[in-house]
Design brief:
The structure holds 2 protein chains of 2 kinds. Chain A has 5 helices and no strands. By secondary structure, chain A is an all-alpha fold. Chain A has a single domain, classed as Up-down Bundle (3 helical TM bundles of succinate and fumarate reductases), CATH 1.20.1300. By secondary structure, chain B is an all-alpha fold. Chain B contains 4 helices and no strands. In chain B, helix 1 (about 20-50) packs antiparallel against helix 2 (about 50-60), helix 1 packs across helix 3 (about 65-90) and helix 3 (about 65-90) packs antiparallel against helix 4. The longest helix of chain B is centred in the first third of the chain and has 31 residues, at about 20-50. Chain B starts with 18 loop residues before the first helix and ends with a helix. The chains are: A mainly alpha, B mainly alpha. Chains A and B meet through helix 2, helix 3, helix 4 and helix 5 of A and helix 1, helix 2 and helix 3 of B.
Chain lengths: ~130, ~120
């Protein structure tokens, strides 16, 4: 005799009633990346050179470091959402799908933290 | 839930690919490529934060044909994903959803992508 009621078997089936935040977050971050991404590629295009000193001096301008941090965080968020959709579409089986998404989220967070840390380290550092 | 290894009839290799279908999968593929590019960008920043020697080691890794291919590939992915992304945003507000409009904007996106990538590397 199963302890669960028939109602409990059925509850939870049907539409997930979830996903609006994902949809909206993807569009919002897309808009931000439109501006930030273009700014970054144009800035790289115009920078004196990509030699170490030129890069460091460019990064030490507060507008550049802040904007680049903004870009990295938004990029990580947008990428996290996108990869989740790809995994949901192609990775089969509930367990491995959820595992893959969890790992992807952790990885994105780690990369974002590493990038922000590096930018701050360069911006605050005094070494040449 | 899924039934493994049930045979399906060929479709992708048989029917003509609409341009919209090509751009759709390209949008997904360039997105995934850009995710990898983000990791590379983080490594680039980490190397810069680790001093001029570490930075030189990192840039040397990319200072060959394969590295150039990667960078051009990432810039192509960026411009495509950006242009097609704007096309998606128009759709999200309900504009340009007619088949003829979608086909026209598809070609526009492709022209823009190749043009911007070429301009970026050649100018």
């Amino acid at each position: 005799m199963n302890l669960r009621s028939p109602l409990s078997h059925v509850l939870g089936s049907g539409s997930a009633k979830d996903g609006t935040e994902h949809f909206w977050g993807q569009r919002l971050s897309a808009l931000a990346l439109l501006v930030l991404g273009l700014w970054f590629v144009i800035a790289l295009w115009r920078i004196e050179s990509l030699q170490y000193l030129d890069l460091i001096h460019w990064l030490r301008l507060p507008f550049n470091s802040v904007s680049l941090i903004f870009l990295c965080l938004t990029l990580a968020y947008h990428s996290k959402l996108g990869i989740q959709v790809i995994v949901e579409d192609y990775v089969g089986g509930a367990f491995i799908k959820v595992t893959a998404i969890i790992l992807s989220n952790f990885a994105h967070l780690f990369v974002a933290l590493a990038a922000v840390f590096s930018i701050l380290k360069i911006a605050f550092g005094a070494q040449e | 839930m899924t039934n493994q290894s049930r045979p399906i009839s060929p479709h992708l290799t048989v029917y003509r690919w609409p341009i919209t279908m090509t751009l759709s999968i390209l949008h997904r593929a360039t997105g995934a490529a850009l995710s990898l590019g983000f990791v590379a960008m983080a490594l680039w920043l980490i190397s810069a934060a680790s001093g001029s020697a570490a930075y030189a080691d990192f840039t040397d890794l990319l200072d060959n044909l394969f590295g150039k291919v990667l960078l051009i590939g990432w810039s192509f992915s960026f411009f495509f994903h950006l242009a097609n992304g704007v096309r998606h945003l128009f759709w999200d507000v309900g504009l340009g959803l007619e088949k003829s409009q979608a086909n026209t904007s598809a070609w526009f996106v492709l022209v823009l992508t190749f043009g911007l990538t070429a301009a970026y590397w050649l100018i």
